[in-house]
Amino acid sequence: MFAGSARGYLFVAPALAYLALMALYPLVSVVAMSFQDVAEGHWRFAGGRQYARALGDGLVWNSVRNTAIFTVASTALHLAVGLALALALNQTWFSRTLRNFVRGALILPWLFSTAASALMWALLYHPFGLFNYLWVGVLGRPAVIQFLGDPTTALAAIIAVNTWKSYPFYMVSLLGGLQGIPLELYDAAKVDGAGAWHRFRFVTLPQLRPVLVAISTIDVITSFGHVDLISMLTRGGPGVSTETVAYHVYKTALLDGNLPYGSAVSTLMLVILTMFTVVYLRLVTGRQRESW
Amino acid sequence: MSRAGRRRQRLRHGLGQAVLVGLTLLATAAILVPVVWMFSAAVRPIRELLTYPPKLIPDTVTVEYFLRILRQAKYQRFFANSAVLSLVSLGATLVLAALAGYGFSRFRMRGGKAMLVGILALLMLPRVTVIVPYFRLAHAWGVYDRLGGLILVNVAFLLPMATWLLKGYLDSVPVELEEAAMVDGCTRLRALWAIILPLAVPGLVGVGTFVFIGAWNEYLLAVVLTDTPSAQTLTVGLAAFFGEYVRDWNSIMALSTLTSVPLMLIFVFFQRWVVQGMTSGAVK
């Protein structure tokens, strides 16, 4: 069934060579640059100076805190919204067409660029926008909320946009997981007298576990590296209240032009994320071995 | 069970279904509010925007803002750049990914599993961690502020996902067909082209849509590696438009709408395959 291996390499070589040059090489060089310094336009070895600076910087620790909040909240909300909607879409509806239409409509936010999503929400968050109309005009509160301009609400406002933008991917993944659960398991549980909650708790959730583990890890890594919404909606502000580690890299390296320092923070990010990835790969390959 | 009991059960079941469907429709409506708001803001005159109370249906409908954007050379350039970037990235990614996916699917190679795991690891690589080397390399290679450079880095980020998904899809295409063709004297490359790829069209369409949307919406690499409209894409143009001091919301929403329309059309056409690809792909 399988041919000799030599010719296989010819098929995979172009893609691997491309990734080696365009992904691995930059990865190695970001680590190399993090141990350097720029003086009068020349790069030279500087040992761990950039790391010492980064780890001693209160702004970095502030961004770590914001990243933790952003990542945990985004992941939890993506999974909660995604699972609730996936469960609803996985039921029998009186009209299949309506269900498919709703499924398509619910995927819609995933199609928009983060740029377009950021702008749509910025209009809703506007002091004279829809949300403030509901807050002041309908609920009768005395003052408008500066959703993006107030340090106490800005991060939550960005998390809301990120939840809206990315839940469809997780919803569809979970829908795929739900459809893979054998119906006999539910029938057996019903025979044993299990109610809806027990069927969810003891059949659905355990069966979804592998998918949940996989997508939550993907989500943690994606949210951790997220820059787009923050750079478009608040630029880390007001103050540094929405500055995450990823945005800190972008700001210090590209906006302030401190490339070696940005490399050091990038490398720190990679170290943290590698720990996550190792766990993820162990789980995924452990499961895939049977099917290979 | 008595007839009355069965009827009662059916009624309860129907009622439960109605509640579920009703709640889901309500949630869907809430989720679509930003989109509907964008459309309606794009087609109303400025004095009808940000009014108190807000009006969902504008009194006057105008396409002036769309036309004004479409007539500007700068935005035409952004559209052209986004289209070229997405299409070339799509083509390059699919060719490389189809070859690699076929290789991984059909050959048992030493180190094959390690290579696949490596590709999976790259799939998770956050773009932001390599913007510094990309920025330097782009200058060193003379592709800073060039669309070509942007295509090179975009493919690097689209390729791992595409390879992984296509490998999975090709695993489900039976080997016997190409074996028969090769017994008849077909070369392997020819068998891949003439027999396997036509069978893999649904997979290619699903992955292709994924890749196109990814390239079209990419922002971070574009903002790092470009500087002038000659190489900038729509996402960068959109963000820059927003960043300007005077906020012309109608035009912003019109531009947002215009950038999103191509993706919505593509999605309407290819929804089935995309959903198939997403439900059976990376995380299974």
Describe the structure.
The complex is a heterodimer of chains A (292) and B (284). By secondary structure, chain A is mostly helical. Chain A has a single domain (47-286), classed as MetI-like (MetI-like fold, Orthogonal Bundle). Chain A has twelve helices and two strands. Chain A has a two-stranded antiparallel sheet. In chain A, α3 (58-89) runs antiparallel to α9 (196-224). Chain A starts with 5 loop residues before the first helix and ends with a helix. With 284 residues, chain B is mostly helical. Chain B folds into two domains: 3-48; 69-280, MetI-like (MetI-like fold, Orthogonal Bundle). Chain B has twelve helices and no strands. In chain B, α1 (3-42) crosses α12 (249-280). Chain B starts with a helix and ends with a helix. The model of chain B has no long low-confidence stretch (mean pLDDT 85). Chains A and B meet through α1, α3, α4, α5 and α6 of A and α1, α3, α4, α5 and α6 of B.
Describe the structure concisely.
The complex is a heterodimer of chains A (292) and B (284). Chain A has 292 residues and is an all-alpha fold.
List key phrases describing it.
heterodimer; A: 292 residues; mainly alpha; MetI-like fold; two-stranded antiparallel ribbon; 12 helices; 2 strands; 74% helix; B: 284 residues
Q: Helix amount of chain A, in percent?
A: over 70%
Terminus-to-terminus distance of chain B: 42 Å
Q: State the low-pLDDT regions of chain A, or none.
A: 288-292
The whole-number mean of residue pLDDT values of chain A reads: 86
Work out the oligomeric state of the chains in this entry.
heterodimer
Q: Architecture of the largest domain in chain B in CATH?
A: Orthogonal Bundle
User: With helices defined by DSSP (H or I, 4 residues minimum), what is the helix count of chain B?
Assistant: 12
On the 0 to 100 scale, the average pLDDT of chain B is 85
Rg of chain B, alpha carbons: 24 Å
For this structure, the CATH topology of chain A is MetI-like fold
Name the CATH superfamily assignment of chain A.
MetI-like
Tell me the Rg of chain A in angstroms. 24 Å
Low-pLDDT residue spans of chain B: none
Count of separate DSSP helical elements of chain A: 12
CATH homologous superfamily designation of the largest domain in chain B: MetI-like
Biggest sheet statistics of chain B: none
Largest sheet of chain A: 2 strands, antiparallel
Globally, the shape of chain A reads globular
Structural class of chain A: mainly alpha
What would the CATH topology of the largest domain in chain B be? MetI-like fold
Return the domain count of chain B.
Answer: 2
